[in-house]
Specification:
single chain, 121 residues, mainly alpha, 2 domains, 70% helix, flat
Length: 121
Amino acid sequence: MFSTKTPLIIAILFSSSAVPLHAQRLDALGSIHASVGEFTRGSFSSPAATSGAFARSEGRRTYWLEGGAVGGLGLGALGYGLSSACPAHTGSCPNGPVGFLIGASVGFVIGAFIGDTIEKK
């Protein structure tokens, strides 16, 4: 299937397209790690800092759970219907409950993303 020259050709392609490390801007990655370390060092030092973080997260209430439930039930029912519509003797379609679970998991994620954009009043 492969000739004996294939590894040589692959090695030449990788070596000719290699980018030097200074061109990849890896120094910015080091500064990100340094700033994360400074942030986490002071954020959990006092109870006041953690209570402020919880207060900010509780202030934004969204419909992510409701959207996930609606999306999961909707696409789960669609998955169940599509899986039961397949002929049984082919073996290429999942059975009804598996089709429901596949549709529900995808639908929950999509519904949760959509519901997270809508804030509760």
